[in-house]
Amino acid sequence: MKQRTTLGCLAALFILGCLLPASVICAAGNIGAYYLLRKPVALHDPAQIENEMDRIESEVRALRDISDAAPAKRTLITRDQLRAEMTDEFKKAYSRQQVQEDLEEYAAFGVLDAKFDLYSFYLNTYSTDVLGYYDPVKKQLFVVSGAGFGASERSTFAHEYLHSLQFQRDNLTADNWNSGENSDIISGKQALVEGEAAFVEDMWQKRYFSLGDQIDYYKQSLSALNLDYFRIPYFLEQQLYFPYLEGKAFIASLYAEGGWAAVDAAFHNPPSSTEMIMHPEDYLQGDQPVRVAKPVLPESLAGSWREAHEDVLGEFSIDLVLGTHVNSVQASKAAAGWGGDRFVVWHNDADPATAVAWHTRWDTQTDADEFASALNEYDGGRFGKSQPETGAVCWITTVAACQAQSGADVWWFYGPDSKTVQSLMASNLPGESGVDPAVSSALIQLFPFFL
After folding, report:
1. Does some domain include residue 447?
2. What pLDDT sits at residue 76?
3. Residues 259 and 163 occupy one common structural domain
């Protein structure tokens, strides 16, 4: 789904990520008894912290096989300083109107409740649940320090320092990594960036963490844990985790295939979809997404509706959408045949309402059939039992949705009433002869739903 992220935000490491450390005691096989028994001590003296940062930088460069690099500006900040800085940056980049339009889009796809306070969630997450970040404009990394520079701060510093090395590469700039691209491409690139940092942080922990460090790491993470995080909707949780977990697995696959040379090559030829991240074999085989034509607004609606957003969901977000009403195994299997998609969201400001036209294309007819079946189950689970009508299975009241298929193409439409949806269908679907009669169009009643 849509992510209005910048590369500056990509370099953030969330607190919950610290509950998934590299290992608990795997360092035992690689370090001596002295280090196993060493009690970790949080550093407070500025000179000692600077020396520790120098050491970690050298260790990260060695792990990443980088002989030299420009010095990185680094700053320890308090939680209050982070909150003030991130709150200010967030408010500049993301207006309440943008958040409201995003929420309406998410509600239309059924992944968030329309009453969810998305603005507060984003603001709290980026101002409270971040351990560190790298600012590519200032070329400076920041690490939140509570009670000194302990295991958590050291590990976060290793992660963020790797980001600073990434941004020294000529091809990693905001201009050539974000501009004019759809969210699925951006999510794929974000996973590459965060995945490498998480993978190197993992290597660093395995090599340099003692058992005492691991214990200290857990204790610091638990003491700083924001329990509200566990109450967030599943969709948002998975969106936050994706670049770190799936990205790290993607980097691990490349590294196993060809070492750091394979990872370097990925930065010069970055993945162009979340599908490539989830299936590294597709990336290695060059399986590029299909470009799908943009759905259009019929002339009959042109005077009342404005286009709010055009984007691509991609395999990962489709999996999450289906998963709200389909079991996770079936949802993942149905999303895996993705070839390409594009959707448009329109808003009617005079009579507040949202409409969506979503066009998907699948690798094969069989993949399209499988997705259409899962989408039907999603619609049934979300909207209730269907009622037959002439040529379709329909539910028609205050809100409507419909599904149609033609070969390897499947469409889904959503709107405030059947007239709006029927107009969208008439302007976007192929002729009557091109629509597969085995997959019905459905006008669907919307009942209140809560995640």
Report:
1. no
2. 87
3. yes
Beta 392-394 vs 400-406: how paired, if at all?
unpaired
Range of the domain at 334: 299-434
Handedness of CA 44, 46, 48, 53 (dihedral sign): positive
Neighbours of 37 (CB within 10 A): 10
CA gap 2, 4 in Å, rounded: 6
Measured in whole angstroms, the distance separating CA 216 from the mean position of its chain's CA atoms is 29
CA 371 to chain centroid, in Å, comes to 21
Q: What is the pLDDT of residue 400?
A: 85
Place of tokens 């649940």: 129
Residue pair 371/326 in contact by the 8 Å Cβ criterion:
no
Instruction: Establish if 170 belongs to a structural domain.
Output: yes
Q: Residue 450 falls within a domain, yes or no?
A: no
For tokens 């239309």, name the residue: 108
pLDDT 10s digits, 309-337: 999 999 999 999 999 999 999 999 999 99
Q: DSSP E strands: which ranges in 318-363?
A: 338-348, 353-362
Residue 430 lies in a domain: yes
Query: What residue has token string 């957003």?
Result: 309
Question: What crossing angle do the helices spanning 314-323 and 328-335 adopt, rounded to 10°?
Answer: 150
- One-letter amino acid identity for 72? A
pLDDT in tens, 161-204: 999 999 887 667 666 666 567 999 999 999 999 999 999 999 99
Give the count of domains, the chain.
Answer: 2
Query: 305 with 259, same domain?
Result: no
Pair of tokens at residue 142: 């920041």
Pair 185, 39: CB distance under 8 Å: no
Q: Please answer whether residues 318 and 335 qualify as being in contact, where contact means their C-beta atoms are separated by less than 8 angstroms.
A: yes
Q: Tell me how long the chain is.
A: 451
Write the CATH number for 342: 3.40.1000
Element (H, E) at 144: strand 140-144
How far apart are alpha carbons 281 and 286 in whole angstroms? 9
Using alpha carbons, select from 86, 167, 91, 89 the residue that is nearest to residue 128.
86
Model confidence at 27, in pLDDT bands (50, 70, 90)? very low
SS3 408: coil
- What's the rounded Cα separation, in Å, for the pair 365 and 50? 60
Residue recorded with tokens 């269908």:
425
